[in-house]
Every structure is written in structure tokens, then in C-alpha cells.
């Protein structure tokens, strides 16, 4: 990348915008003094990009009409220092003013933050499979289980801010149900059509608010998948559907 004044480009990072606060719907992202992502919209993602390892890289957030890193908003930045040879997913999440939104039922802090996943995968470990990690990114939701095809729990007691390990699934179509942490009942289900994604990897992230009315009419709850190439797909919501898991 030409953004960084070094030849040591041996770590990779993908950034996902999952901060559901309407005030942060579109932002500019700076890495040091360099504009990294312009007009970066909620529920979009960057592809993996190469960045220097072993050095502090300040990440700043500004409104979408910013003109330089001087416009970044105090308190919304962070500093990353990445390990050589590693890949990371960094998800921007939370709300700008926690007092103006519903609290997290698990007691997790909901202020704007970055959820970092080390050892991210840019491809599947088996060419006929799809490797996925799941992130709970809904500030007003309790811990949940994610159940594939009503039978297989693939995320257990996943609380806000938590990622799962990577799941390696045959490239097929699945129904992903979201349930309370007790495992039943399944409250809502989504279709995850992975049939054309053999060899790919991605992050499935829960997004939005459970109750928009008490969260400044922000986006409603949904499941989304960010692929390693930066493509983000909304998983369609379904009812009374079942697909046999392989």
C-alpha cells in the first residue's frame, strides 16, 4: 500500500463498519495522516489491505465531509500495532453516546469501540468449504446461541463484542437460527447461501438494534456476512424454513 511510508508491509487488516448509531452512518477513516477509507458506510467493509507490522498506527474517525486527519473526532480513535504475518479483522462498533441508547443486557460497555480479531482467515482451509467467524455486534441484545438448521449449535453464549472461532462448513445452503443463550426457542432465522463460496472466508456479524424505537430509530437487527474481498451480503430473514446441514 502507498498509504504507509515503509517497505515493511507484512500484516493484513480488514475493517468492518458495524456502528449502528445513526450519527455514524457514513464516516472517513484515517490511518495516521492518511485517508484510509473515504465515505465508509455502515454495514460495509474494506478488503484485506497490507499494513506495516510492529509499529503504532493511529486510527481516527471523522465525519464524511472531512478534509484531513485534523478533522478526526476525539475519543473515537485507537492505535493498532500488528504482528508480522498475521491477518486481523477490525470491526468499528458501538454508539457515540451510550446514555442516549438502550444499555446492553449483559452489562457490556456500548460506547464506540473497535473489536479486533487476530488470526483472521483470508481464505478457507479446505477449498470446498467456507470458513466463517461470527461476531455479536448488537449493543442492546443479550448473549445468544446461533444454531445451524435447528440442530447444530455453532455459537454458544455469544455476548456483545465476542467473536467465535472459525467454523469450516461445506459450501452449501444453511439456515442460521438465533436463540437465547439457553438454546431455545429460536427467535429468528436467516438463510446463509454459501453454495458458490467454496474456498472463501468471511465474518458473519449481527448488526443493528433489537429495539430501534429506544435506539434513535436506528437500523433493525439483521445478520450480514463480510467476505475477505470486502463484499458485504445481507442474509435474508426466513420463517418456517429448514435446510439439511451436511
Secondary structure elements and pairings:
Blueprint: E1 11-17, E2 26-31, E3 34-41, E4 49-51, E5 57-63, E6 78-80, E7 87-93, E8 113-117, E9 129-136, E10 144-148, E11 152-158, E12 167-170, E13 173-180, E14 188-193, E15 201-207, E16 222-227, E17 232-234, E18 237-238
Parallel strand pairs: 1-7, 9-15
Antiparallel strand pairs: 1-4, 2-3, 2-5, 5-6, 7-8, 9-12, 10-11, 10-13, 13-14, 14-18, 15-16, 16-17
Your description of this structure?
The protein has 246 residues and is mostly beta strands. The protein contains no helices and 18 strands. β13 (173-180) and β14 (188-193) form a beta hairpin. Mean pLDDT is 92; it is low at 241-246.
Please summarize what this structure is.
The protein is mainly β. Helix content is 0%, strand content 41%.
- The CA-CA distance between the termini, in Å, is 40 Å
What percentage of amino acids are in beta strands? 35-45%
Mean pLDDT: 92
Structural class by SSE content: mainly beta
**What are the secondary-structure elements, in order, as H or E?**
EEEEEEEEEEEEEEEEEE
Q: What profile does the largest beta sheet have?
A: 5 strands, mixed
What general form does the structure show?
Answer: globular
Write out the strand line-up for the largest beta sheet, numbering strands in chain order: 12-9-15-16-17
Q: Roughly how much helix do the residues carry, as a percent range?
A: under 10%
Counted beta strands: 18
Q: Over all CA atoms, what is the radius of gyration? A: 18 Å
Q: Flag low-confidence runs.
A: 241-246
The helix tally amounts to 0
Amino acid at each position: 500500500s502507498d498509504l504507509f511510508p515503509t517497505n515493511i508491509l507484512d500484516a493484513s487488516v480488514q475493517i468492518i463498519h458495524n456502528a449502528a448509531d445513526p450519527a455514524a452512518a457514513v464516516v472517513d477513516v484515517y490511518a495516521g495522516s492518511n485517508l484510509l477509507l473515504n465515505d465508509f458506510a455502515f454495514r460495509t467493509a474494506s478488503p484485506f489491505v497490507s499494513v506495516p507490522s510492529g509499529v503504532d498506527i493511529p486510527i481516527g474517525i471523522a465525519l464524511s465531509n472531512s478534509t484531513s486527519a485534523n478533522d478526526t473526532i476525539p475519543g473515537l480513535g485507537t492505535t493498532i500495532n500488528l504482528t508480522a504475518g498475521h491477518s486481523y479483522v477490525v470491526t468499528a462498533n458501538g454508539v457515540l453516546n451510550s446514555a442516549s441508547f438502550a444499555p446492553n443486557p449483559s452489562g457490556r460497555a456500548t460506547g464506540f469501540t473497535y473489536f479486533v480479531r487476530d488470526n483472521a482467515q483470508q481464505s478457507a482451509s479446505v477449498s470446498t468449504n467456507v470458513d466463517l467467524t461470527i461476531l455479536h455486534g448488537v449493543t442492546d441484545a443479550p448473549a445468544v446461541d446461533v444454531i445451524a438448521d435447528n440442530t447444530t449449535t455453532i455459537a454458544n453464549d455469544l455476548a456483545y463484542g465476542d467473536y467465535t472461532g472459525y467454523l469450516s462448513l461445506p459450501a452449501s445452503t444453511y439456515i442460521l437460527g438465533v436463540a437465547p443463550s439457553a438454546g431455545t426457542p429460536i427467535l429468528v432465522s436467516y438463510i446463509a447461501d454459501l453454495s458458490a463460496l467454496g474456498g472463501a472466508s468471511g465474518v458473519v456479524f449481527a448488526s443493528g438494534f433489537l429495539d430501534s424505537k429506544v435506539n434513535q430509530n436506528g437500523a433493525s437487527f439483521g445478520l450480514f456476512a463480510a467476505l475477505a474481498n470486502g463484499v458485504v451480503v445481507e442474509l435474508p430473514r426466513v420463517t418456517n424454513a429448514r435446510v439439511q446441514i451436511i
